[in-house]
Amino acid sequence: MKPVPVPLTLRRLLEHLPDVPPPPGETLPVLLRAAVQAGASDLEVADGAPPMFKVNGEIATLTDEWTIPNLLEALGEAVPRDALEEVANRRLLDEDLSVAVPGLGRFRVNLYYRMGALAAVFRVVPSKIPPFEELGLPKEVLHMVEARSGLILVTGATASGKSTTQAALIDHINARFPRKILTIEDPIEYLHRNKRGYVVQREVGSDTRSFHEALRSGMRQAPDVIMVGELRDPETIALTLTAAETGHLVMGTLHTSGAVGAVSRIVDAVGEGLQAQARTQLSEQLIGVISQQLLPRRDGQGLALAYEIMRGTKAVRSKIRDGQLHQLAAELDSSSDGHHSMSASLKRLVAEGTISESVARAASRQRDL
């Protein structure tokens, strides 16, 4: 029996599933293959529950026949044994890791418990790093990443394409400049091969204990470019600012909505006693902020990128230095000096017929969009 009916945008998922579920020991590979072939972003499986896919932001839940009876055993074919043992013995209740499944590709995996049952979310990592031209970002971004030093922030909610954007920007540098590039990720998603550059990828948990430890030691490893997968704590943020200040080009991600929110988060995170110093460092080192969303296309064929770009112009840096962060939004909305507001991006996508007005309104922070 095929899964229950789902929206038209998910039909291609059903085309990659057999009419009858395979034996329990073969179910997970079949589900993972369907996720890859159908262009799903995520697959979630759990003990005692039917699998769930996300395709273009929509959910498709399969019938109970697809439930994997012993998830721990099924995961043994895809997840390293030591990670499974940690979770199975409850020494860890949550675990993030990246895995490579032969013949399918790479996945970012989160193992966790829900109501006492083991569950796993597999996020599909595309096997190929997209060229910058396919991202949908303006060319000004390329000028930002070609700087020799400074700070670039890439922000957005979960599943907004931040990792893909960073990978494409790193690949652009790698292909064109003889620079040493250090990436610190949790976990590693896209794999980079050396081109004109030399790329070192480190994973938190297996290659280093934390982002801030990798940053501290990384600055002594002669990198030209440092990519920080997540600015998640005050120490990592402080070291990121220092790395930019000491002549490195640094890219970091934040889970914030909007370019202005990213600057505020950086300043607030370091603590009250260090905020003036953080504002000074930001005002001197900020190259720009890229904030993005992935929104369902009107034609149902995937997702469209909406973006916001705030350049580190003289006016922006002055407002950051003087603590006038509340004035940054007006500066951004002026659309001058290379800035691009989210509202302008959404209006353009609507005018082009790429997204619907209702999707744009839901994604906008402005009521009058």
UniProtKB/TrEMBL annotation:
Gene Ontology MF terms in the entry: ATP binding; ATP hydrolysis activity
- According to the entry, every stretch annotated as the Bacterial type II secretion system protein E domain falls at 219-233
Write one Pfam family the protein is assigned to: T2SSE
Q: Which family does it belong to?
A: Belongs to the GSP E family.
Q: What is this protein called?
A: PilT/PilU family type 4a pilus ATPase
Q: What organism does the UniProt record list as the source?
A: Oceanithermus profundus
